[in-house]
Structure formats: structure tokens, C-alpha cells
Amino acid sequence: MTISFESKEKSFELEPGPNIHKLARAGAAFRLAQSDDAEMSAESLGTLLRQVSKTSTSEIDNLIGELERLRGKLQIDGNRIEHDIREYAVLSGQVMQLTKIIFESVKKLPITSSISR
User: Fold this and answer.
1) Cα(67)–Cα(75) distance, rounded to whole angstroms?
2) Whole-Å CA distances, 109 to 62, 66, 72
3) Is residue 16 part of a domain?
4) Domain count, the chain
5) Alpha helices, DSSP H only, in the chain?
6) Does some domain include residue 39?
7) Per-residue pLDDT tens over the stretch 10-33
8) Which of 8, 39, 75, 94 is the most buried (most CB within 10 A)?
9) Residue 57 falls within a domain, yes or no?
10) Residues 6+ apart with CB under 8 A from 79
11) Is 8 among the domain residues?
């Protein structure tokens, strides 16, 4: 469903969206001039355009806020992952050193030819 407004100079159409019904309920923006050809008055058209602009601007501001929150979360998660990787590398190095120490210690043990029962 498309809402159309026509005047002598221009035609306006609004596509349905999440906020078009809110605008329709507002009522004031859709008041038509009481004339024979039912043209929209300049004041009503101005009110409608201000409401559409205000709604769009509000949605854009909300989207920007959400994107900023997501950016912050990504930065925090990225920092945490980098820290975890560094910690893993340190632990991995320590395990390698410990393995080498154990290997060297086992190598120094006397070799016995038989195992006692």
C-alpha cells in the first residue's frame, strides 16, 4: 500500500514501513485543506515532511548508537583474544621447556637391561 499526495506541481508517495503507521495515527500531518480539489495545504505538507524527517533522523541516530556499541564490543573482544593468544604462547613455551627438561632428565637415567618382577 502506497500513500499518495498530489498537488498541481508535484506528487508525493510514501512507501509503507515500520513508522508509516505511526505517522498515519498522528493525524495532524495528514490533514487536508478543505477545498474542492482536496489539495494538501503547505502547512500540512511541511508538518508531514518534518515528521518523516524526524523519524528518519531518530532511526539513523539509533543505528549509529548501536553500531558504536558493537564497535566497542568488538574492540574489547579483540583485546581479550589478543591477551589470550599471548598468554597461550607463554604457556606453550613453558610446556616446551618443561618437556625438554624432562627429556634431558630421563636421558640421564641409567639404562637397565631387564625389568625386575
Assistant:
1) 12
2) 70, 64, 56
3) yes
4) 1
5) 20-26, 42-108
6) yes
7) 555 555 555 555 555 554 444 444
8) 39
9) yes
10) none
11) yes
